[in-house]
From TrEMBL:
Membrane topology: Multi-pass membrane protein
Keywords, sorted A to Z: ATP-binding, Cell membrane, Kinase, Lipid biosynthesis, Lipid metabolism, Membrane, Nucleotide-binding, Phospholipid biosynthesis, Phospholipid metabolism, Transferase, Transmembrane, Transmembrane helix
Protein localization: Cell membrane
Pfam families assigned to the protein according to its UniProt record, in alphabetical order: DAGK_prokar
Transmembrane segments: 26-44, 50-70, 91-112
InterPro entries: DAGK, DAGK_sf, UDPK
Protein known as: UDP kinase
């Protein structure tokens, strides 16, 4: 890949991040991530625990952005009500929920033993 094309693609990816940042759900994840990072700082996590926490936060943001992208594509492809459009949006939202629940469980497994 030539340098200019790479920089252009990088710019488009940054535009995507800025667009996603304006989403309400993304902002809630941002607040949750800040709380987890502050809690991690004061709890005193080990290196491996930080790696797991950072990985979960990054994956949560990436998954939320994929969910938003799917919503946009569905709205474009199916502006009218359609059962498949509903399934696509609900499954994408379900994927975020599954990951959020498991992240919360992993977070509790990391933090709780240090607090009690
Ligand atoms: N074209 C459609 N056909 C059928 N059902 C739809 C359609 N669009 C949305 N829905 C249903 O409405 C729900 C909410 O859709 P909406 O587009 O408002 O998503 P959202 O999760 O509120 O996203 P956001 O508000 O972030 O855009 C979807 O999960 C789906 O069940």
């Amino acid at each position: 890949m030539d340098g200019r094309k790479f920089i252009r693609s990088f710019g488009y990816a940054c535009e995507g991040i800025v667009t996603a940042c304006k989403e309400q759900n993304f902002l809630s994840h941002l607040v949750s991530a800040m709380i987890v990072l502050i809690a991690g700082y004061f709890t005193g996590l080990s290196r491996i625990e930080w790696i797991i926490v950072l990985l979960l936060i990054a994956l949560m943001f990436a998954l939320e952005m994929m969910n938003t992208a799917i919503e946009r594509v569905v709205d474009l492809a199916s502006p009218d009500i359609h059962p498949l459009a509903k399934q696509a949006k609900d499954i994408a939202a379900g994927a975020v929920l599954v990951f959020a629940v498991f992240s919360a469980i992993i977070g509790l497994l990391i933090f709780l033993p240090k607090w009690i």
